[in-house]
Amino acid sequence: MKRSGSLMALMAGCCFVSLAPAASEIVVYGKVGDKVVLKPRGVPKNITSITWKDDPNIAMDWEGGEVDSKRQFKERGHLNTSTGEMTLTGLIVNDSLLYRVEINGQELTPPIRLIVLYPVPVPTVTTSCEDDNISCILMCDGNTTGAEPVTYSWKSDDTVLSNVSKEHIVTKEEGSRIKMFSCELMNNVSRRNSEPIASPFWIQNNNTPQILPKIVTGITVFFSLLVAVVLLVVIHRCKAGVWFYEKGSMPWEADFWTNEEKKAATSDNNTTRQPLKEEVAETQMT
């Protein structure tokens, strides 16, 4: 139970522990910038002295008084004198070393090998297809410098594939039934997923059915607008008595919809009444 709790604590701190095949050393993985706790095994109950070494140099030393920290361990190291655990913060790649610990003058085994890795980048999926258009190769690309060793996995739609290599070959038969592909890139300290891309054969097999509805919709909208314009022109002709291009006013002006025949009749009446008013005025003056 104690060992299980220690492993869970290490995984919670973004660090991973594995045991070498011959059990000669414990391998602990840490992510650049994170912290890691190195936990020795077989620690005695009563601790009187602790010496950690980043083989062969002394890293931290304690003999009942103050902890004597060396080099980078002065700022980034912490020693728990009750458990013998050494914590490193702000991990860098150069912290990847073999660490040994002596408690009460006795070296505890196995030693701990720390491996510090960069997190994997977000991968991208690229596609290249054969000239015969029978198969395509999908590549899960990403700069993995400092993050290796890495592993790959592939997903088609919502199904995880058995392929764990960097490339995935898609046949026309397989790709025509799948809409999207994506890949996952991971190492012992991180994992990232790519954006899904459309299956190249799904696009080819479904391109015509997708375009046809768009064409029909476009034609329908065009003729609907055309009918609306024609109706507007006819209504204007009936109401104004002339075609719209014969009007001197603009559509947003009130006079645009005025009937030209009624307007002309009103103008003639006003012209006839004007001389009559002038004659009446002259008669009154005499």
Automatic annotation (TrEMBL):
Signal sequence interval, chain numbering: 1-22
Keywords attached to this Swiss-Prot or TrEMBL record, sorted alphabetically, are: Glycoprotein, Membrane, Signal, Transmembrane, Transmembrane helix
Any one GO cellular component localisation term in the record: membrane
Location within or outside the cell: Membrane
Q: Which residues cross the membrane?
A: 215-235
| InterPro entries hit by this protein | CD2/SLAM_rcpt (IPR015631), Ig-like_fold (IPR013783)
Segments carrying the region annotation (Disordered) are 263-286
PANTHER family reported for this sequence: CD48 ANTIGEN-LIKE, SIGNALING LYMPHOCYTIC ACTIVATION MOLECULE
Protein's name according to its UniProt entry: Ig-like domain-containing protein
- What is the protein's species of origin? Channa argus
Q: What is the lineage of its organism?
A: Eukaryota, Metazoa, Chordata, Craniata, Vertebrata
